[in-house]
Specification:
Layout: H1 4-19, E1 22-31, E2 38-42, E3 48-54, E4 69-74, E5 82-88, E6 101-104, E7 110-113, E8 119-122, E9 159-161, E10 168-170, E11 177-178, E12 181-182
Parallel strand pairs: 3-5
Antiparallel strand pairs: 1-2, 1-4, 2-3, 4-5, 6-7, 7-8, 9-10, 11-12
Amino acid sequence: MVTERFVQKLLAPIRRRINGAITRAVVSGVVEGLQRQNLQLKMHADESVDDIERFQNYGCSSFPPIGSEAILAAIGGNLGNLVAVAVEDKKYRPKGESGDVFLYHLEGHKIRLTKDGKVVVTATDVIFEAANSFTIISPETLIQGPLHVTGGISTDLGIFATGGITSASVVSGSDLTAGGFSYLGHFHKDAENRNTSVPVG
């Protein structure tokens, strides 16, 4: 005779596999030196697991801080084959508006993609390393604060300089203005208080 207790006992292993197929955990350690990052995790009832592979999206990689929360999936319902499919530390997640995308660090520096095509970079220092060239294509470029250049400055439109802007020659009709003074339209007085000629190449 098949009893309810017998059925429950028969279904218990299946129920455990289903209940454990997706679970939460807390990151207690990170192994970064492998081809795929591995995590050490604390699960429910203070159960610990090691060597849990963390799958990340192509093109993105992060080193989560200890205490981050993880979502684990049991491949094929096998609790001995857990993988981490998402890791987040909600304490550091920046909050934006609808549609915003962030790349962020726990110390607060971040890159934010906002509406209207804006990219906002917030950091203490920003370094661009380009082996060949660095090109800015924009109808207008604004710099707030001092500008320090260690190499030469050149333009196809008006001024060519080497070693900074102390040595310049005019190559066309464009002008350089600094502090409200025009390079091409700037005159000095000679010994007889007459205006000098415009700068020449």
